[in-house]
Write a structure and sequence with these properties.
The chain is an alpha/beta fold. The protein has 10 helices and 13 strands. It starts with a strand and ends with a helix. The structure holds NADP nicotinamide-adenine-dinucleotide phosphate and ligand F7E.
Length: 331
């Protein structure tokens, strides 16, 4: 019989990659989606008829209990969250409800319905914030710098606590930034590659950015979902840093993306002070030695390949939009 997996946040970047990965492994894949007046299933459109989608919400305890009782998954991946750091200053309470308390709601539902369900929590390098050491590993203390980072620290510790209190097979993946052509356009990498494509094709003139000196450890989302799955296949539950170990500035990302299409980034990028954050995370770099040795996990996509993959995908998409406009104008 096929193993059953339930993914919260299946409509997001990681949800789409994880759903594809689990389907390829022969899983029966269920996804939790929240009700909206307009469906936003673009990222999973190509998988739609192979998935079972259920309405529930991280804010609604009973809906999560009902969902888990109906699906009875073997594995549950909790990817749903308010995941955009700047929004967490504008909506700190809602961010805490989704990103912190939402984790407890899912864990409580597991405890009540079936404590043998294996649980993955999508934790974040934002918990390290103003990091006490570099590179960061599983023992590095947390110093979050945004309401999002604080909420993720809660989610991490409640996951550890339900493992220790109730013996639930609960794992926390401390994931550094991971990107892809499916990344939301508000995040800096996709904002840049979308702008590069639009500028190259004559649809945009300038790109406004904030802090170009911020340093991140950027990997490919497709590699990161494999680490999530590996964590739930071990004999014992544990926590793992997932990272490439390489660090680059936002400026370097710009340089590489613009030069790939033959443009010079300084001709197009403007600094907008409004995009600077009230408290910045200046530099992050992960040490994934534990994931490499225990899980046998390795990233397969380099930074340079990631930038090119994202620019290529955006060029293709903008070109298709232009062709559609021409066709519509000519009909
Ligand atoms: P994403 O693209 O922003 O997706 C977030 C998902 O959460 C969406 O499917 C969203 O649904 C869902 N969601 C939000 N609030 C919800 C609610 N109240 N009830 C039900 N669903 C809700 O995020 P991602 O990049 O895929 O990241 C996946 C997870 O990993 C997140 O928890 C994120 O915080 C964490 N993480 C990400 C990174 C990264 O670099 N990508 C790094 C570390 C940790 P809608 O489509 O309806 O909005
Ligand atoms: O910012 C700087 C910004 O929004 C990266 C989420 O997935 O990864 C992500 O959080 C850096 C920051 O990602 C702009 O100040 C400059 O230093 O792409 P980002 P993030 O905040 O690192 C972690 C691991 C998560 O868990 C989160 O869910 O880029 N930056 N100029 C800018 N950032 C944005 N968004 N837009 C700019 O114009």
């Amino acid at each position: 019989m096929a193993r059953r997996a339930l993914i919260t946040g299946i409509t997001g970047q990681d949800g789409a990659y994880l759903a594809q990965f689990l389907l390829d492994k022969g899983y029966e894949v269920h996804g939790m989606v929240r009700r909206a007046s307009t469906e936003n299933f673009e990222r999973i459109a190509h998988l739609r008829d192979r998935l079972v989608l259920h309405q529930a919400d991280l804010l609604d305890q009973l809906s999560i209990i009902t969902l888990i009782s109906e699906v009875r998954p073997h594995e549950l991946y909790n990817l749903a969250a308010q995941s955009f750091v700047p929004t967490s200053w504008l909506q700190p309470l809602l961010t805490s409800e989704f990103t912190a308390l939402g984790v407890t709601r899912v864990l409580e539902a597991i405890r009540l319905v079936d404590p043998s369900i294996r649980f993955f929590q999508a934790s974040s390098s934002e918990m390290f914030g103003d990091a006490r050491e570099e590179p960061q590993n599983e023992r590095t203390p947390f110093w979050p710098r945004s309401p999002y980072g604080v909420a993720k620290a809660y989610g991490h510790w409640i996951t550890v606590n339900y493992r220790e209190s109730y013996g639930i097979f609960a794992c926390s993946g401390i994931m550094f930034n991971h990107e892809s052509p499916l990344r939301g356009k508000e995040f800096v990498t996709r904002k840049i590659t979308d702008a590069v494509a639009r500028i190259k094709l004559g649809r945009q003139e300038k790109l406004k950015l904030g802090n170009l000196d911020a340093r991140r450890d950027w990997g490919f989302a497709g590699d990161f979902v494999r680490a999530m799955w590996l964590m739930l296949q071990q004999d014992k539950p544990d926590d793992y840093v997932v990272a490439t170990g390489r660090q680059h500035t936002v400026r370097e990302f710009c340089q590489l993306a613009f030069s790939y299409v033959g443009l010079h980034w300084e001709d197009y990028v403007e600094i907008d002070r409004a995009l600077f954050r009230p408290a910045e995370v200046n530099r992050l770099r992960g040490d994934a030695t534990k994931a490499r040795t225990v899980l046998g996990w390795e990233p397969t996509v380099t930074f340079e390949q990631l930038v090119r993959m994202m620019v290529d995908a955006d060029l293709e998409r903008v070109q298709a939009e232009l062709a559609q406009e021409v066709a519509a104008g000519g009909s």
